[in-house]
Every structure is written in structure tokens, then in C-alpha cells.
Amino acid sequence: MSNAVASGIFTDILGYYKAFSPDAIRQVESEVALPGYFIRHYHRPNLEKELISPCVVTVHHDLQDDDASLAVEKFLDRYREATTVHCLNTLQQRFLADQGITNTVVIPHGYNKKYIFPKYSSVEEIDSKTGSSQKKRIGLISRRYPRKVKGEAYIYELAQHLDPTEFEFVLIGKGRTFDAAILERYGYETTAYENLPYKMVASVYRSLDFLLMASWFEGGPANIPEAVGSAVPVLCNPIGMAYDFVSNGVNGLHLTMDPVVDAENISDWALNEKKFLSLRKGALEMKHRGITWEEHAKRIFEIYKNVTHEIVGGFRHG
Fold it and tell me: Tens digits of per-residue pLDDT, 163-212?
């Protein structure tokens, strides 16, 4: 981990790796590389002066993020030292290829299949739910960051161009009660939770008509595979994993990040019953684009196997 700073996301990911690890693999989390282990998997390579080979590196962030602490120059040399670079999305892979780094594998984040599953089991069941007069429920599920990288200013502007008699908001994440107060001031019925057990967060997805992801920069985010696994249409800036998972007009809508244009487009699709149902059906039919954490972990272990075979094969032929 290269330092002792706690990270909920890293804790969850490593927990899944250990939970789904085959008996042949022994994994240990540490701040520094420990002796006696064959492969190192770095999650904060920018904090290292040099990587120990053989090793795997995961790209957790948007490589075009303008945060100085995430400047791409702090990462590229380390990526070049890695045996394999694990990307979360094809945009990261493409960016690195432009830098001459091609030893990459794309494996997106997963979702917990124990808790994440669709509200409807078939398109026929979706058809049977036509005629609902309820407001369309938009979910914003992510923590709030001080630099507003999750698109808060855009969301406020978007809300001013949607109709509060037609839409309502559900917000989950640290700091989101602040945003809820602003949306309520605009006349929206709003429900907000700073923190919820994961099981309850998963149930909220099944109550949503849309997930809103308006970030300016993303490596993930985790809510994309969760929404896809829940068959919830996604309103997204097509970056990060959303670029790979969400097809415009099929299982969600791509935002232009112009709040006036986007509000008109969202209203057109959400308030037209035929169009809304097509998004609902598309989200269910495209559910397979998401993978579970178990599948994610299996693919990571395949990287470990391939690295092992490559190194051992090199020893034999050397």
C-alpha cells in the first residue's frame, strides 16, 4: 500500500481478493514490500521510488485528473517498471498506450452479487409496470469531495432546469446532506444519508429510476458496476467505467455536461413512457456488462498466474 493511510475502497477490494482467493495463493497486505513473496501488487505506485519486479500495478484514478497530487508524471515511470498494469477501463488503457505503455489488462470493479440484483427479472415484468404516476427517482451515490470533482456545481445547475414536480433525489454518501439542503431549496423532495450499511445501499439502487454520475474525473466509480448490476439506467459523463458500461440511449444517457441541454434530454427520456421503458429494458438486457467481485478477483489471479509463468519461463530459457 506504500503508506499507512486508511482507504475504505482499498479495504473492500483487498477483502474481496482474500475472500475469493484459491488455496494456492497467499496474500498479505503491507506498507512496504515484504521478503518471501513472489509478486508485489502496488496500489499507490506514485509513492515508490522504484518497483520490485515481478509486480502488478493497479490504476485507480483518472489519468487526466487535474489534481496536482495525481499528476500523471508521478505515475508513468512506475507503470513502465511494472510487469503488468491493471486498468479499470479502456480509456486508461488507451491513454497509457499513447505513452508507449502496452503491458496492460482491463478489469473493471465488480459488484457484490449477494446484495446487488435487479428489481425486475424480465422485460415482460417491466412492461407490466407501465402507467406509474410517481416522480422519477434520481440517485446520487458517492461521497462529497471538497474540490467538487463529483460535479456538484453541475448538479445544482441541472436541478434548476429539471421539474421538481416530476423528479426527486436520493443521496447517499459522506457530505451529501449538504447537497440535499440545496436541492430541497430548489423545491425537490430529497432523501439523504451520510452513511448506510451496504445491504441498505444495495436496496436503494432497486428503488431508483436513474443513477446520476456527473464527475469530471473518474477511474471507476464503484457506483457504475453497482447500478449496472441492479439494472438501473445511468445518467453519466461518459468517463471512467461509464465509458465502457453505458451505451447512450440503451441503458442510460451520456451527459454533455451542459446542464441546460442535459436537463432537456433527461426530461425527454424520463417523462416519455415509451422511452423510459426502453431504458429500463436496455438496463436489464445490458446487465451482463457488469461483473461480480468474484469474477473480478478471478481475473486478477489470472494476471498473477500469467506473471508467474512469464518469469518462471524466462528462468528456464535463460
Answer: 999 999 999 999 999 999 999 999 999 999 999 999 999 999 999 999 99
Is residue 282 within a helix (H) or strand (E), and if so which, with residue range? helix 273-285
How many other β-carbons are positioned within 10 Å of the β-carbon of residue 314? 10
What is the Cα–Cα distance from 143 to 146, expressed in whole angstroms?
Answer: 10
Check residue 181 and give left, alpha or beta (phi > 0: left; psi -120 to 50: alpha).
alpha
pLDDT in tens, 35-69: 889 999 999 999 999 999 999 999 999 999 999 99
**Residue 140: pLDDT band with limits 50, 70, 90:** very high
CA dihedral 83, 88, 93, 95 (to 10 degrees): -120
As a whole number, the mean pLDDT across the chain is: 94
Cell numbers describing residue 77:
515511470
**CB-facing half-sphere around the CA of 37: CA atoms within 13 A:** 18
CA distance 2 to 173: 27
Beta-bridged to residue 235, according to DSSP, are: 212, 253
The Cα 65–Cα 263 span in angstroms is 26
Query: Which whole number is the average pLDDT over 225-246?
Result: 98
pLDDT(284) > 80: yes
The gap from C-alpha 212 to its chain's centroid, in whole angstroms, comes to 12
Tell me the one-letter amino acid at 288. Answer: H
The three cell numbers of residue 253 are 444517457
- Compute CA 24 distance to the chain's CA centroid, rounded to the nearest angstrom: 29
Burial class of 94 by CB neighbour count within 10 A (0 to 12, 13 to 18, 19+): middle
Neighbours of 83 (CB within 10 A): 19
Per-residue burial over 260-290, b if 16 or more Cβ lie within 10 Å, else e, is: eebbebbbebbeeeeebebbbbbbbebbebb
8, containing H or E segment: helix 8-19
Contact 47, 2 (CB under 8 A): yes
* pTM score of the predicted model: 0.94
